[in-house]
Amino acid sequence: MNGLSGADLQCHRQSQEAQLSSTFRAFLSSPTQNLVSIVRRTDRALPVVNLKVSNKV
Questions:
Q1: Model-level pTM?
Q2: C-beta separation of 20 from 35 below 8 A
């Protein structure tokens, strides 16, 4: 994926293919990365979505 920027680019391309108009970024986690440094304060109330997984209950 070539790091976070490559993962973000892949998310962007997939969102365009799905004809979504919002901004999409990769959400990668690791034991050494703090979630606060990944998600901006203004975005913390937004949903995290995985378009490839169905969330049907």
A1: 0.56
A2: no
